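Readers outside the structure-tokenisation community will struggle with the description of the input data as it stands. I therefore recommend that a typical entry be quoted early in the introduction. An entry of this sort, consisting of the sequence and the corresponding backbone structure tokens, reads as follows:
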Amino acid sequence: MGVNSATATEQESTSSLRVLMTRERWIEVGRILLTGLIALLFWRQWVPIQILWLAVAIGLYPLVKTGLIDLIHERKIGTEIFVTVATLVAMFGGETVAGAVLMVIILIAEFIADLNMDRARASIKSLIGSVPQVALMRGTDGERVVPIDQLRAGDVVLVRAGEKIPVDGSIIGGAASINEAPITGESLPKDKAIGDIVFAGTIVASGVVDIKTQQVGSDTTFARIIGLVENAEAAQAPVQKLADKVASWLIPIVFIFLIGVYLVTRDVRTIVTLLIFTSPAELGLATPLVIIAAIARAARSGILVKGGLYLESLAKVDVMVFDKTGTLTANKPQVVRVETRDTRFSEMELLSLAAAADRRSAHPLAKAVVDYATLNLIAVPEPEQYEQVQGRGVIATVSGRNVLVGNAALLRENGVTLITAIEGGGQTPVHVAVDGQFAGVIYIADLLRTGAREALLKLKQTGVKRIVMLTGDNEATASAVAMELGLIEVRANLLPEDKVTAIEELKKQGHRVAMIGDGINDAPALARADVGIAMGGGGTQAALEAADIVLMTDDLSKIVSARAIARRAYRTIQENLFVGVGVVHILGITAALMGWIGPIEAALLHLGPDILVFVNSAKLLRIRIDGV
């Protein structure tokens, strides 16, 4: 098994490299080899200097072209301009061999850097997985293999154990255990049966299913995830923008410095050496590779980050604001206790009448009552009459009895006397009256998500100073939930606009704020926060669009993982800038000024920061990160 896996990985890596080696790249390889060969022949005095100049011109052409395009369109002087200037200074200054060799080494370094950048981008798909290009379709004429792009909504595909699901759809036949890790990051397979939704790119671990196609190709959840991750690089992190700005500031300073050194030393060789070490190229490499690696790592864990901007924001937040319902709680109301207030009815009889009255209601509290009765094998008859009263509850006739189920206002408006107010103590009381008499109370609570308290504690350990819970619920319910979670800061009875105001207040106090909500109802607050995190995207388009970061499951530990990845990525960027760029370049400039190294040695040493930055960045794809 291990040998097969290693072989598959090696084949995949070889295949990936083959894809990256495009026609243009092979031309670049040829250009490098030609220039290097002619430089060697000239050094051996086997070709005239005119041939060397021609080879240098061929080698410099793509650098000059790219450099001028960046200069004109982006007002940016990149490493291409520096290499061109260094080569020409060396050539005109009499260091012809050094200039040619310098150019060849830098071309090799640039080629490797570009190739590694593209390999890092390509790793996103290999980390998450892929979608089959063909499917086994079932039709009136039997089963046949068809290309994915020929499938349409409504087509039925058959997927067996060990195969990847090619479409988004619903199971209409069979049952299976499905590994949804490519979508949710969860390693344990989920049991799926008729009626359940399945996603393209997920794997049938066991069983066989017939799937009715709903979405194909670029419309699938998997394709949208890939698109979001691949486009995430465009949203630059502030540290990345700062690196670009620093690079632009350095350039005029560098040229002034080089002119000063030349006026003092009159040594072209030293100037060429310094040109290599004063190039701001690594500043441009220090952040993009980290961002790509971190986003790919997050995607593999079922966390979609829409750009480096949001990674850095999440790493720096010191206040996290949570919506209550559907985020800290499961948004699945459950009956927690039943109290009878009329000796004529037992708890079972009270539940039977209340569930019968609620049977036709779509309200979450009514559904909780019916589900509880069904779970306890209590008979739930069909009501003879039924009326839904908006904002109050239901009025029904059950087995000849007049039954009211709802809040206190419903009972009072229908002439039922309530001697004392019913307090839920953080639970929602559902009042039940039978034939005009108060009969009892059913208490319902929205239970906490599994691991909620532990997740909040871990977030505090990562440097989050304050955790605030916002809710539209009443004070009593909010306080009860906060007490269970160990939270101190709670704001209740809030409308959506009140949540936005709460976040604005925190930002005015100088805090960096992350808002965690359901991605739909909390959209205004998510947008106003420094970083908005949508819980439990589950692949819905609304959740994918509502926030800056989307968690594909309702697991609160994913927030801890997202924070851990963000902080590690930010730290890696700092390491790249300080060690890979700062220390190496300072040492190189010092060595050049002291005359310890020349242009060729500098060009070879120049590979060091590139390799160091790449290795340090790429390790984010593999290393263990606490909390992930």
